[in-house]
């Protein structure tokens, strides 16, 4: 039995049947090798072992970017670098990707890309499309993170992946999330609540609002002061040593003004980012 944690991500889903039968596959004209992962090209890029079903150049911009991401994630989060291989399976065509994903991980909601962690492996599956670079930065961040962290809370896992999914040139400001949160603040339909976010354990219940708030806490922690960045780094270090480490909110509660001050500061952070965006 495959014991796997499939990290669901907030990427646009694709509509596929929950389970494909061999009959339905043959009716679509797909080949029998639909259950085989891509194997035409194999590239080693640092920790990544990339398997593609199409010719992919070793020096492709995306490959180099994902290699660099390993260093960025480690530097920014103060994490060691692991040598555990992360297998990245790239499909050229969506139909083959969907069929493979549905056959191999039946019942898992369809995504453009997803990350799977088992007791013995770390794998990413994706198909080549317009947003492949963003998707791979997101999923590969999960891979780099899980290679060193045994357990990581859902909100933080996704917040960090959202943070690193942006190109480096964007300064890690996720405009879509900023717009969403600023709009909800204006409507009076959202206030930050880290403890509420920490209570979510099921990726299936994580909405775009949760992704946006998770990204925002991570951005605020990493980008607004060295003390806050150290607080997140220390938490990740402690979590690596002890998965039972109390949640991050307990540490923020001990800082000046407690969680209420942190939440108020987060609101200011959103509004400032929104202002910067409008001023562009
Ligand atoms: Zn994710």
Keywords:
2 domains; 11 helices; alpha/beta; 280 residues; six-stranded mixed β-sheet; binds zinc ion; Glutaredoxin; single chain
What is the strand and helix layout of this fold?
Layout: E1 4-7, H1 22-28, E2 41-45, E3 48-52, H2 61-77, E4 86-91, H3 94-104, E5 113-118, E6 122-127, H4 132-148, H5 154-164, H6 175-187, H7 194-198, H8 208-223, H9 226-241, H10 248-253, H11 258-279
Parallel strand pairs: 3-4, 4-6
Antiparallel strand pairs: 1-5, 2-3, 5-6
Helix pairs in contact: 2-4, 4-5, 5-8, 6-8, 6-11, 8-9
The structure holds zinc ion (ZN).
What does this structure look like?
- With 280 residues, the protein is of the alpha/beta class.
- It folds into 2 domains: 4-148, Glutaredoxin, CATH 3.40.30; 168-279, no CATH class.
- Helix content is 50%, strand content 11%.
- It has 11 helices and 6 strands.
- It has a 6-stranded mixed β-sheet with strand order 1-5-6-4-3-2.
- A hairpin with a 2-residue loop joins strand 2 and strand 3 (48-52).
- Helix 4 crosses helix 5, helix 5 (154-164) packs across helix 8 (208-223) and helix 6 (175-187) crosses helix 8.
- The longest helix has 22 residues, at 258-279.
- The termini are far apart.
- It binds zinc ion (ZN).
């Amino acid at each position: 039995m495959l014991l796997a944690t499939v990290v669901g991500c907030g990427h646009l889903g694709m509509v596929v049947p929950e389970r494909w039968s061999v009959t339905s596959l043959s009716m679509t004209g797909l080949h029998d090798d639909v259950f085989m992962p891509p194997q035409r090209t194999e590239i080693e890029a640092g920790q990544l072992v990339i398997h593609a079903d199409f010719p992919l150049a070793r020096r492709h911009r995306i490959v180099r970017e994902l290699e660099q991401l390993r260093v960025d994630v480690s530097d920014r989060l103060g994490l060691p670098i692991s040598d555990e291989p992360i297998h990245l399976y790239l499909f050229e065509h969506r139909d083959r990707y969907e069929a493979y994903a549905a056959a191999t991980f039946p019942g898992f909601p369809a995504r453009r890309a997803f990350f799977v962690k088992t007791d013995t492996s770390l794998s990413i599956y994706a198909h080549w499309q317009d947003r492949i670079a963003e998707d791979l930065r997101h999923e590969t961040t999960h891979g780099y993170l899980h290679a060193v962290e045994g357990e990581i809370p859902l909100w933080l896992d996704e917040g960090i992946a959202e943070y690193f999914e942006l190109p480096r040139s964007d300064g890690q400001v996720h405009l879509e999330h900023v717009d969403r949160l600023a709009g909800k603040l204006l409507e009076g339909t959202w206030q930050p609540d880290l403890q509420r976010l920490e209570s979510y354990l099921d990726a299936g219940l994580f909405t775009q609002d949760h992704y946006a708030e998770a990204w925002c806490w991570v951005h605020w922690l990493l980008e607004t002061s060295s003390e806050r960045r150290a607080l997140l780094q220390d938490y990740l270090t402690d979590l690596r040593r002890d998965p039972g480490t109390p949640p991050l909110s307990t540490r923020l509660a001990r800082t000046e003004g407690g969680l209420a001050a942190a939440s108020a500061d987060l609101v200011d952070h959103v509004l400032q980012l929104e202002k910067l965006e409008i001023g562009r």
